[in-house]
Amino acid sequence: MLVFRGSGGLRMTKFVFVTGGVSSSLGKGLTASSLGRLLKSRGLKVTMCKLDPYLNVDPGTMNPGEHGEVFVTDDGGETDLDLGHYERFIDESLSKMSNTTTGSVYSNVIAKERRGDYLGKTVQVIPHITDEIKERVRRLGTLGADVVIVEIGGTVGDIEIVPFIESIRQFRRDAGRDNVCYVHLTLVPYLAPSGEQKTKPTQHSVTELRSRGIQPDIIVCRSDQPLSDGLKRKISLLCDVPMQAVISAVDAPSIYDIPITMHDEGLDTMVCNTLGIDLEANPIDLSAWRDVVRRVHSTTKTLRIGVIGKYVTMPDAYLSVGESIRHAGFAVGAKTAIEWLEAERVPTEIDSERIRQLDGIVVPGGFGERGVEGMIAAARIAREHDIPYLGLCLGMQVMVVEFARHCLGLSDAHSTEISISTSAPVIALMAEQMDVTDLGGTMRLGACPAMLDEGSVVAELYGTTVVSERHRHRYEFNSRYRAQFEAAGMRCSGTSPDGRLVEFTEIADHPFYVGTQAHPEFKSRPDRPHPLFLGLIKAAAARAEGREPHIIDPESVNATL
Ligand code: GLN
Q1: 27: which residues sit within 8 A by CB, 6+ positions away?
Q2: Pairing of strands 475-477, 14-20
């Protein structure tokens, strides 16, 4: 039985469930995040979570080229990339509790069964799996939020989504009708031959949801043109929701416009009405968000930033990196035209000349050998040609390898992740550095503190010498080489508090050449760009001032917001 905070007449936690129909990739995550921002702008405390129907226990083992980025939380959760949208929109740090997968639910239930917790009962999808799902959602509601927004991954009608839909159906019974709101996102396609927008897919999708016992309170309709009142009336009639509960969600010029358009369509008003949240007592203040949107649309220059990575054909693989670059751009009034360059094609098909046209370079994180030589080549071009460079995790490691090879004369230098037999293992597992084998190769995950050197570039950028960033890696700078690096001009400008792990590297005699073992991209916000990205973008802007006009028109590259 679920127990709710405040059941003794005090304030109750409210729950919004966001499902999707018709098609995947309609922007459920962004719709949920936008709603989160709107409710937060009404002074409500909001938290969010994602229920993913796949069998992986978490996305940590999934190929980013297929599934997109793995978003890392402070507590070391390897989570779905939608949590990145949540954090950027509601500006709250989430934890691993905010991502549940079918795999994690089953593995918990099976572990309980093995322990004998079910006292000889037959363990079944209903009630054991559904109870486990409900319990996870309920637990989030005990952490002080006024509203918990729960996004259900996948599409209504999928086989594997059924236990989640059943759980959220039961949830309204458990939590009380007024404490739960169901938002359903669908597609209203425009059919050119008939010259009409079609509501049939929406009707089918709502029918499917109803067949599982859920009547949506609000239907958000994605379409490329606004829905007419006539169409809204039709959906209202056929899907049995008030006309104001049919929300038109047209393609927005940038993702940061979505909260504003959703507000103008009345999404947050309808959600509050459904949940009995007093609109007068919780007036909306969107001024801060409107400022963000104003900055997004008032850029006066364009900077070309190259992201040189392994999974560039799937920019979702670097979602937070792209957003962090954009956030920093907004802060300096620059549109950032991001060129996604495939590391494997550097320096052959993508040659030094092409890279030298960039205003700045980011080499993001990654695992395995593919593309690493190209990243090393890019780090070299950036160092030798004064191109602002920011290395993130693997991006720092390649900058260290490059420096060792070309500035320390260690031509065989490498990371032991790629060459176990290198004579100069400048990047290595902790265990290898300490000549012990029992530390294993476990991943360093989640927030770790670091101490920065006074007067270093990074201390200057952060404006402090104590920072915390999120990690996700196994290999580290090999401290045995530290003195050699420092003597030749690459400073280890930040370390773990015990001084053993190098967290930041930089070259002072360069416009901007900074690497971090962490993933700062997870902490950038649209209105608060991350200091390292801001440093890069400012240096890129300075470079752009001094350079020849672009040979390639930056507007023509794939710089979608
Ligand atoms: N593959 C490297 C390591 O494990 C870098 C990881 C990353 O970039 N996230 O250390």
Answers
A1: 185, 222, 249, 258
A2: unpaired
Q: How far is CA 301 from the centre of its chain?
A: 26
Contact 83, 94 (CB under 8 A): yes
Looking at residue 540, its amino acid is A
3-state secondary structure of 100: strand
| DSSP string for residues in 264-329 | HTTHHHHHHHHHT--TTTS----HHHHHHHHHHT---EEEEEEEEES-TTSGGGGHHHHHHHHHHH
| CA atoms within 13 Å, Cβ hemisphere of 96 | 15
349 φ, ψ to 5°?
Answer: -70, -35
Write the pLDDT tens digit of every residue in 65-110: 888 999 999 999 999 999 999 999 999 999 999 999 999 999 999 9
Longest CA–CA span in the chain (Å) reads 76
Query: Residue 439 in 3-state DSSP?
Result: coil
Q: Is 393 a catalytic residue?
A: yes
From the alpha carbon of 393, which atom of ligand 1 is closest?
8
The residue to mutate among 470, 475, 478, having the most atoms of ligand 1 within 8 angstroms of its beta carbon, is 475
Q: Residue for token digits 């850029």?
A: 299
Distance between CA atoms of residues 182 and 167, nearest Å: 13
Pocket-forming residues, ligand 1, beta carbon under 6 Å:
365-367, 393-394, 417, 472-475
Would the pTM of this model clear 0.70, i.e. be above it? yes
Residue 100 φ/ψ, nearest 5 degrees: -120, 135
Beta partners for 466?
451
Ligand 1 atom 8: the closest Cα is on which residue? 365
For residue 16, the number of C-alpha atoms closer than 13 Å in the C-beta half-sphere is: 33
| Tens-place pLDDT, residues 479-535 | 999 999 999 999 999 999 999 999 999 999 999 999 999 999 999 999 999 999 999
